[in-house]
Amino acid sequence: MNQTKEAKNTHLDLTAVVLTYNEEMNLEECLNSLVPLNCRIVAVDSGSKDKTIDILKNFDVDIYHKEFHNYGDQRNWAQQNTGINTEWVLHLDADERLTEKLRENILNALTNTNDEELAGYLISRRTIFMGKFIKHGGHYPVYHNRIFRLSKGSCEARLYDQHFIVDGKVKPLDGDIIDVTDDLKVWFERHMKWAEREASQVLLESRSSKLVQGKFTGTPIERRRWLKNNLYYKMPLFFRCLVYFVIRYFFRMGVLDGYRGFIFHFLHAFWYRFKVDIYILKKRFN
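Above: the chain sequence. Below: its structure as tokens.
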């Protein structure tokens, strides 16, 4: 069942899809960053119990409800079941927002492009952790397919670390999606769930054509997948967590991100990555 306002006329041939679940702390800034695009906004909520729905109702947003299974399922359901009739679609999480530069370039790209072969755009993500821009350690820029022609893209069916598969030519678009994490309690809660999902995905990994295939000479997304599958997960359990930290913090200069950068890189290596390996070990013996 959904709650929607009467469809509005839009000037930009774009629908923005936002996934929400108990996002009262972040949602307003996310929506405010979308409003200047003057596009349709769709929210797919998975059972929020805080003020998320009230905040959504304060904006011109079409609200849908769906039980959460995984991000890929949620995003693909949104594309297929929310009446999207625009040529282009943009996917965001509620704790993300667009920079002004990215908004300007989205407006320019979607209104002035004449390249019919262009299927989508790669956008860099800028992580803000405890108020600090995590610029080093190989964490910026990290590119994702987030804007694409509706008929050309879908989310891969993975339990974790899902990427959008775009059938056709893609190119980078200047500007960032800002990903904000200020609450460490929320960070731990989310990464606890994500660690178990990633462990399950590692043990279930296949060469399905519906997954982004790793390719060292491919796009930044394909290169990251190749490095993870062909190098990182080939190393021994737990030892690879240490290698991950040393490479990111020292060789890729994560040390330049200061004490909050140390916390960020340390937690990713010795808490999240370590937790993934614990789950992998546990699942292998079950």
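The CA atoms of residues 241 and 269 lie 5 Å apart.
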